[in-house]
Specification:
The chain is mostly beta strands and 88 residues long. The protein contains no helices and 6 strands. It has a single domain (2-75), classed as Probable tRNA pseudouridine synthase domain (Thrombin, subunit H). 0% of the residues lie in helices and 42% in strands.
Length: 88
């Protein structure tokens, strides 16, 4: 697991906003420091150099999550980078 970023805000509709170190993909799963799956990325926004991600949590987040690190597993999902191309 690699660090995605630090939680900067908790919204009123139960999502968290994370300042990301790299640009994530929509649909990536998010984990806490113990390795438990806690949510999924629903939206990526902001500048390219420092994007933000809106994460839909499995459980309603509390204010004490603010400032904690969030983790993800970088890589392509569904095997899309297996180099499949046209057949000759």
């Amino acid at each position: 697991m690699d660090i995605l970023g630090k939680v900067s805000e908790v919204t009123t509709d139960g999502r968290i906003i994370v300042k990301c170190s790299e640009t994530p993909e929509i649909g990536q799963f998010i984990y806490d420091s113990k390795g438990d799956k806690i949510g999924i990325i629903r939206r990526v926004f902001g500048p390219v150099e420092g994007p933000y991600a809106s994460i839909e949590m499995k459980n309603k987040p509390t204010e004490k999550i603010r400032g904690t690190n969030i983790y993800t597993i970088w890589g392509n999902k569904n095997g899309k980078s297996k180099g499949r191309g046209r057949r000759n």
